[in-house]
Design a protein that fits this description.
By secondary structure, the protein is of the alpha+beta class. It contains eight helices and five strands; from the N terminus they run E-E-H-H-H-H-H-E-E-E-H-H-H. Helix 1 runs antiparallel to helix 3. It starts with a strand and ends in an 18-residue tail after the last helix. The N terminus and C terminus are likely disordered. The structure holds fe (ii) ion (FE2). The site of fe (ii) ion (FE2) has 7 residues, from helix 1.
Length: 237
Amino acid sequence: MSPRDGNVLCVSPMKHALPPLPYDYAALEPHVDSRTMRLHHDQHHASYVANLNAALEKFPELQERTAFWLLLNLSQVPEQARTAVRHNAGGHVNHSMFWRAMSPAASGAPSGLLADAIKRDFGSFDRFKIRFAEAGAKVFGSGWVWLARAQQNGGGLQVCTTSGHDNPLTQGRFPVLVNDVWEHAYYLKHENRRGDYLKGWWPVVNWEEAARRFELSAQAAGQDWENESGQVAAPVV
Ligand SMILES: [Fe+2]
């Protein structure tokens, strides 16, 4: 069907879409179980995408914006939709990053410039892993644990946490690696033992993706952020 109907230009608003998992549900077994992956991606992440689209339904001027733009410009979202957009755009962005942060062909350890930076800023890879797992275990309630690069003070690496679906991008930090510590990420396999989940996660960490994000962090500035598919987006004003 033509987008033109007589003299009226019909423009379909952009709908946010659930990205496919970059591997099979069972690909991360035995470290992350397939039942959790299926529920996590097909139900939880899908609901954030659906709820984001619903929250934007009455605001066509926002429907062309990326989820990143919405997170970084929440003050421009009408108050009646702001909380829903914050939670659901954040859920969409964070989960999109999280799927790519894991791989069935994981190398086990970082290399190159990222490995050098981890050693410089944490003392060693093992010390970084301890710091990351401790921070993830201490998140009260639902949240995320990150390896992020500060945009100020020389761009050092930091471990930080966010609650709900907040993202370090809104706090002046560029996310390099992320793990989801919401109960839905581990409860089916580990029940309430979040520490076991964090400890068992390292074998599936996608260090190539973390290295790519580390490089991206050096290019990113201001509003020149990537989009949800991991590509650097053109500056959005
Ligand atoms: Fe999650």
